[in-house]
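re: ur question from earlier - yeah i can do the single chain one, its not a big deal. heres the input i used so u can compare w yours
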Amino acid sequence: MRKFIESVKKEFLVLIRDFEGLSLMFIMPLILVFVITLLQERTYETVNETRIPIVLINNDMDSVGFAFTEGITNDDFFDVTIIEEADSLQMEQSKDDVASGKYQMGIIVPEGTTKSIRNRVLALVNQQVPAMMNVDTANLQQSVLVDLFFDPITKDSFRNIIKSNLREFSSKIETRIVFLTYSRIIDAMTNQTTEINYPEKPVIEFDEGYVCEFGQIDVPSSVQHNVPAWTLFAMFFICIPLAGNIIKERYDGCLDRLKTMPVSYLTIIVSKLLVFLMVTILQAAVIVMVGMWVMPFAGIQPLQLGQSMGGFVLITVSAGLAATGFGIMIGTIAKTYMQASTFGAVSTVILAALGGVWIPLYIMSPVMRQISQLSPMNWGIQGYYEFFLRDAGIINVLPYALKLFLFFAGCVCIAYFYKIIKNKHIA
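and the output i got, formated as tokens:
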């Protein structure tokens, strides 16, 4: 045990000797997480948090126009600029403003919109009681064109969503006007006045939520994706200094001197693994604390932890083992530091890209989602998601932690057997 402790102590002293390099292993991932999260914050905002700038021109100045004005103004989805009774110059200017990007869309409610709806109701009543009124039945076919114009860069999917929402909104307004007009006609037929409170809420409503066996789930945000994702990226990037450490000892003759001592090669490797594993765990802890307490100062919502810290510790240790095992394998097989640094950097970037660090899985194609299952970073991200987003415990994190541990074991076994084969070849 004393030999192992001294070996760990030696690795620790070697590591802190290059204090600047050790500091960069913490500082650079923090900068990366901070910058990426700030860049993607707008992308990950929910629809209700993003206010779309629009211009609304109300030329109707009646029930429909006022209802559009009130409804859209009270909707948090829009940031509305209202123009009433606009002339042709103002309407052209509004279209120019949309085309230049000042507004993302514009709406023109034409004059006489409410009157057209009422005329249609009167035409319907005339079919039932033709003796009461003389209304042109052509009003049944009359329609009103509400003009919608969009910024040219607006995507088709967004336009379809907006049009669908506006159709639903205008349908509610039309239904209300039809109902109230019918009520006044009935009052006129019966010589009475009835005060009817038209219900604001629809009969059918929707209760929505996330399906999660652990109770309430948080809505994913940029910080809840980027903190675990780039934590894993930083962990796996430790393969470069770890591999470099192994190669340097081999070429400096330090490893040969250590072999002359009564210390097994396994003790030497395990001591390296333990020291660098502690670095990865500290990296994860520091990045998470920055997500919780520092990022809110930049206007980013704080990272919220789950309830089971055991699950967090398990997935962090497993990811750290996978990263250090990967570094040991590279350091054992690579002949030069250039080989180790090039392969380690490129392979880490590839694993990150496949694993969903840069591009979340739900954006990937079905084929790439299947391929991403081969990346250990994907297992780590999914394990962290269980903790951060689904408030899962150790049992639910365990499958991902087991995959990471098997990856670690596979890397160490490859390094071990390569070492045996190489020694036999030398002998």
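Residues 50-190 form a domain with the D-Maltodextrin-Binding Protein; domain 2 fold (CATH 3.40.190). not sure if urs matches, ping me
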